[in-house]
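Supplementary Note 3. Input sequence used for the single-chain structure prediction.
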Amino acid sequence: MEQNSIPSSKVERAMRFVKTGAQIGGNYIKHYSKKMVDPSLSKDQLHEDNATDVYNALSELKGSALKVAQMLSMEKNVLPRQYTNKFQMAQYSAPPLSGPLIVQTFVKAFGKTPHDLFDTFNLKASNAASIGQVHEATLNGKKLAIKIQYPGVAESIKSDLKMVKPIAFRLLDMNEKELDKYIKEVEGKLLEETDYELEYKRSVEISTLCATIPNLVFTKYYQEFTTKRVLAMDWLEGFHLDEFLKTNPSQEIRDRVGQAMWDFYDYQVHVHKAVHADPHPGNFLMREDGTLGVIDFGCVKEIPEDFYYNYFALLVPEIMKDISVIKRIMLQQQIISKDDSEQTQQIITDAFVRMTNLLRTPFDYEVFDFGDNTYIDKIYALGEEVSKMDELKKSKEGRGSQHALYINRTYFGLYSMLNVLQARVNTGLRDWAKPLVQYHLAAYN
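The predicted structure, written as C-alpha cells, is reproduced below.
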C-alpha cells in the first residue's frame, strides 16, 4: 500500500510517537488483565502486539525512526524474536511513497520531472526501505536504478532520535550513558546516510578498491543525476538472500557467494580501514553463477587507527593467552574502568574473554562452516546472558568504545547472513592482515 504523505513537522512526528506509546501501554494492560485469569500466559502475544505497533509507527515516519528499527532487527541477542522478525521488514520492504511525492522530489532537485530526465521512469517503487526507495528507469537503452530519499528525512534526524530514545531504552535495556553513546554514533551515521553526494563518492571509492576481489560485482554510478537527495546507478540484477535461497543453489554456489562476502569485508577492514557497515540482506544481490552484487554504500564506518589495532588485536592467538594484555585492551576500549571494583573487573573480563573467543572462532580455521547452527546459537545465547549482567550496567560513562557499535554490528550481520546462506568459507587470516599480526607480536614480545 502506497503512502501519500510523511508526517514532517516536529509536532506531527511527536504526536505519532505519543500515540505509539499509548498503544504499547494499552497492550501491557491487556496482557496483564489476561494474565490475572491465566497466570501461565507467556509474553509472546504482548511482544507481537508491541512489535507490530512500533513497526507501523516507524514505517509511517520513515527516516531515522525506521532506520533504528532496521538496526534493532540485527540485535537478535537482546530483543525478543517477534521484534527482530517484524523489524527486518524495514530492510527492503517498507511502505513506498506515492507517485506525486516522487515527482515533487525530482522537481525540487533538478527543476524537472523524472520523465523529463529519463526515457522511461516507473513511478512504482521497486524497493522501499528506511531512508529512501528505488525506482526503475531507462536512458539510451540502459536500465537504471534511481534511489530517492524520503522528504524531510535529514531535517528530522535529531528530533526523531530524541523521541525514539525511550522506545530504544526499553527494548535494549541499556543504561542511560550507554544509550546516549549509542544514539550519538547512530545520529552521526544517519546524517551521513542522508547525503547521497557523499554516498556517491564512497560508492565509487570502495567499489574501485575492491574491484579485484573474485566474484564481486559493483554497479556504475552517474554523478550527473546525483544530488543530496537523489542517486543514480546502473540497474544491478540478482536476488536478495531469501529469494536466492528459493532457487535452491548448490553448496558450491553458496560457498562461492559466501567467500565473496567474507573477502569483501575482510579486505575493507584490513586494507581500507573503512567498511560497508550495513550488512543486511537488502544490500546484497546474489546470482545463480555464485557472484555477489553489493549495493548501498550510505553507511560506511571509518575505523580510527588506534581503535583498529586494539580491537583486532584479539585475532592474534598469543594476545588471547595473556590476560594482562587483554585487560589493557579492555581499559582502552572502555569495557572496564579503573573505577570498577576488582570483582566487577574480573566478572566482566571473564565474560569478555568467553565472548571474544567465541566470535573469533572462524579465524582459527582455514575453512569455517557458518551453516553450523549450534555455533550461531551459542553466540545468541551468550549474547543474551551477557546483556543481562548487572555489572555491565554499573558504569558512569557506559561501557565500550562508540566505534565498536558499527564494527560489532558489521560482523554480527556478516555472520548471520553467512549462517542463513549455509556457506563454508576460507576464513584464515590473509596477507592483508599480516601487518596487524606483526604489530602485535612485536609489541607483545
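Residues 89-94 have pLDDT under 50 and may be disordered. The longest helix spans residues 10-37.
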